[in-house]
């Protein structure tokens, strides 16, 4: 449970992981209706499939490597990245994309939550080619409908939304790609995250580049978990944290995620694709990844 829910105290939650048992956590199926899936990219599918078996372990995990102890999931959403596919506006669509608010009871409770954790497990196809980079699912929030589309270089109403998605770079280097309200405090805090953080405020912030690697997901399941704590209105006390297989790899505080009580944690932005912009970001061949064990808990 520590990999998918890496916090000890929480109020309630949900999971599609059949191996996770807790009286506070509702068991649900990996199905759109049960998980509150909405705003689905019409050109892309997220087929429910039986994923391929994991690759055998070549050698014991390094000392301190918090490798997942959960059995492999039986079913997963499959993402196909065809040769030449790039971001959602590209000529060849690839990956998939939608928003996910969780089961009805959880989504209702989320309206009043100030802190929550969301997670999933993912596996990348053997022989994966990283090219320049791409994104995998994350979390989002903000003021009403302004919380949607808080990506892709959007400038309007940036103070009314936030979006966090992990991103791989060349050679599997990982980071957290962040769209936050453009305040001086946010900029300073995000750029201070080690080992390296980069500002491109038109297109977001690359936070904690090389804090982890995605190569561990090639042919094997890894757990990705996010914690979001909203700031009190008028204060810079928001927090974010990212775990990979239960290990905290990126964490920062002193943030502003909202400027009014209308700013809410909305759920997961379940989006994945190659890109970046430009054909040099495109997948060089047909590739696949799988996503399963979607989970969420309300901390406060």
TrEMBL record:
Protein name (database record): Polysaccharide lyase 14 domain-containing protein
Source species, domain of life: Eukaryota
InterPro entries with a match to the protein in the record: Polysacc_lyase_14
Ranges of residues in domain Polysaccharide lyase: 76-294
